[in-house]
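Record format v2
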Amino acid sequence: MNILLVEDERSLGESIITYLSKEGYHCEWAENFSKASEKTWAYSYDCVIVDITLPDGNGLDVIEGLKKLKSLSGIIIISARNSIEDRIKGLDIGADDYITKPFDLSELNARVKAVIRRRNFDAQNEIVFKEITVKPYDRSVSIHEQFVSLTKKEFDLLVFFISNQNRVITKESIAEHLWGDDMDMADSYDFIYSHLKNLRKKIQEHGGNDYIETVYGIGYKFTNH
Amino acid sequence: MRLLAIANRYYLATLIIVFVAGSLAAYLILKSIINQEFNEKLFAEQDQLLYELRNYENLEKTYYLNIGDLIEINEVAENPNIPPTLIDTVMYDPYEKKELPFRLLTFSSEIKSRFYVITISKSLLPNQDLMEGVSEIMLGIALMLMVSLGLLNRFIFKKLWHPFHQIIDQLHKFQITHPEQLAIEPSHVEEFNDLRQVLDKMISKSIYDYKTLKEYTENTSHEIQTPLAIIKNKAEMLLQEPLSEAQLNEVSKIYEAAGRLSRLKEGLSTLTKIDNNQFVESEPIELKAFIMSRLSGFDELVDLKGLKVDLRFEGNPILNFSNDLMYMMITNLLSNSIKHNIQDGTIRIILTQNHLVIENTGKDPGLPTASLFDRFKRSGEGHESTGLGLSIIKRIADLYDMTILYTYQDGWHRIKISFNSQKHQNHEDQR
C-alpha cells in the first residue's frame, strides 16, 4: 500500500510517516504543492493525505489535480481549520475524509485504513485478527465463525483497536473516535470503561481471547502478546 | 421625544409668554389712551353744556352730546363751589337693563345768576368692548403665528433634516457582518456633511477592526493548531516507546495537556465568534423536535449512567435562531445535565411556549450560582472540562436577548431559559 503525505510542517510530517510506516505502508512525503503535483502525476497511491495550507499553494488544488487524473486514491484532508464550510468544500471536490488538527495518529491511521478499504471496492473485504473476523460493510463481527452481536460503539471500538494493533491508544483518542466533539473528556472515560467491559465479555463469551491490555493511567493496547 | 415635537414645544412656550406680556402691555396702553380720551370728552361736554345753557333760553334741538350720556342738572340756593370732579361708579343702565360702569363728571356752575350742580354720566361700556376686541385680535394673531410657525417648522424639519434622517435609516440597516459603506448624498448643510464624513470614517474603521479581529481569531486558531498537533503526535509516538511506567505517565500528561489546550482554544474561539456576531444566519427552529433529536445523540450516555429522562412538552415554540448556536446551546445543556448528574439520577426537560427548563439531580456545585456562567468557573470535579460550556450557553442566550437563570435546590440543578424577549424582538424585526 502506497501513501502520499502532503504536509509542509516537518515535525508533524515525521510523526505521521513514522507511525504509518510501522503499519506496513510505504509512505512518501511531499513538502509543498509543486512536489505534490509532481508525485501525484508520476505515481499512483492508495491514499493521499493532504494538508490544505501549503507554502506554495492550496491543498484543495492537489485534490482537484488528482480528480482530473481520474485517480482512484483515497483522499484525506488534514486541516487546522475546523470550519464547516471548509469541510463541506473539501468533501465536495472529492475528498473521502476530513480531519482537524490536532488529531491523534491512531485516529488518522484508522481513517486511512477505512478509506483504503472503501477504495478497494471489495465487498468481501474482511479484517481478520486471529479468531476475530470483522466485515466492515455489514458491520458484523464473528469469532470462531460464530456471529457476535455488538452495539455500534462496541463495533467502532473493536475496529479502532484492530486498526491500531500493538499501539498504546490513549483514552482521549478513543473518546474522540467514538463521540467526536459531543462529549466532555472527563465523562467519557467511564463510558469507555463500560463499553470495553461489555466488549471483552462478549469476545470471551464466544471463546475469543482478551487482547485488550490496560496501560495504567494512559489508555489501552490491543495486542496478541 | 421627536425633534419636531421638542422644537414645537419651545415655540409654543415662547409664543404664550410673548402673547401674555404683549396683551397685557397693549391692554394697559390702550386703557390709558382711552381713559384720557374719555376725560377729554367729558370736559368738552361740560364746556359745550355750559355754553349752551348760558347762551340759549331753552334747551336746544340739537346737543353736541353723546347719546346715552346722562345729564343731571340740579339747581341749588348757594354757590356750592364744586370743582369738576371725575368719579367712576356703577349705575343701572336702562338700555342694557343691567348695572354697568359709568364715569361721572360733577361740577357746579353759575348760569344766569343761578347756581347749579351738574353731573354728566358717560357709560364706559363701549370701551370695555374695545378691550375685549383687542384681546381677541391678539389671540387671533397668536394663533395664526403658532399655526404658521408649526407648519414652517414641519417643512424645515422635513426639508432641512432630510439628510439626517437618511443617515439614521442607513445606520439602522447597517450590519457589521455584511458591511456596506453608507450611501448618503452630500448635503448643502455643513453640519450634515461633517456628520456624514465622521460616520464614514467610523464605519470604515469598525469594518476594518472587525475584519482584523476576525482574521486574527481565525489565524490564531489556525496557527496554534499545528504546533499543538506536533506536541500531541510526538507525545503519542513516545507513548509507543518502551519507557518506564513513570516516564510514560509524564508523557501522557504532556499529551493530555495538549488535548486540553486544543479544546480550550476551540471553546474560546467559539466565544469570540459569538461575540463578533459571526453566527448571523438564523432560521426558524422548532425547539421540541430539535431537543428530541439532540437528546437521541445522548441516549447511550443516559443509559450508561442509568438516568431517567422526564420530558414535559407543554408548548412547541418556534424560535428564529442560528442553527449552529442552537446546536451548541442544547448540546451543552444536555451534556451538562448528564455530566453533573448522579448515577441513576433524573433529567427533567420542561418546554413551554415561553421558556425551557432543564433540571437534573446532582451534587451541590459549591459555587455562587451566578458565577457559574463566568469563564473557567467550574465546580471541583471534572477537571478535564474546559469550564467554558456554561459561558457559551450564557453568551448565546445574551445574543438572543433570552434570560438565563441557574439555581440549585434540594439536590436539583435547574437552568431556566426564558425566551419571551426573543420572540418579542422577532416581532419588532418583522414590523
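Chain B touches chain A through 45 residues (CB under 8 Å).
Residues 260 and 294 of chain B are 24 Å apart (CA to CA).
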